[in-house]
Amino acid sequence: MIRRSLVLLLLPVASALAAQDKPHDSNAPIDWEADRIEVQDREHKATLIGNVHVRQQEMTLTADRVVALYTGSIANSQGNSGGEALKVQRLDANGHVVVTRPNEVARGNYGIDDLQKKLITLIGNVSLDRNGSVVRGGRLVIDQTTDRATVDGSAVGGAGTTGKGGRVSGRFVVDQDSKK
């Protein structure tokens, strides 16, 4: 009886974190806007500073600052001959990080979008809101291949702010049709 009740209790969790209709294409072009950019081409790093907005397909990332790590060269991506064109590998965001996907908003203090591994990790005061159901904790990992979201109560290695008491908390929205 307890096991069946637990399964019924977890159904809203599965619904709140369910996979989206189509998987995210991390190879799609990335558009961005910022107050300014600093490029260190030898280090393969571009830093976007101030009111940063990054968009890839239907996913948007906003933050105070985003560091884009890439291979290739900025000069080669602008049509200059020779060498490898620029390919972004990872985005490191900090300060008021918000990731918005269809029907989902995730927030945290710091964020990493690993485009190669197709993982988004948010650390510190994280929350995931999906259609009104909210989960809070210290670390959130979203696997863009499976759309599986995992929330831990504490941040990695003790860094960042943990969830309340080092635990995960939240609220699930009850389907109004089920009350009939």
TrEMBL record:
Every Organic solvent tolerance-like N-terminal domain range: 33-147
Domain of life: Bacteria
Gene3D superfamilies noted in UniProt: Lipopolysaccharide (LPS) transport protein A like domain (2.60.450.10)
Stretch forming the signal peptide: 1-18
The protein's name: OstA family protein
Keywords, alphabetical: Signal
Lineage: Bacteria, Pseudomonadati, Pseudomonadota, Alphaproteobacteria, Sphingomonadales
Organism, as annotated: Sphingomonas morindae
PANTHER family per record: LIPOPOLYSACCHARIDE EXPORT SYSTEM PROTEIN LPTA
Coiled coil: none
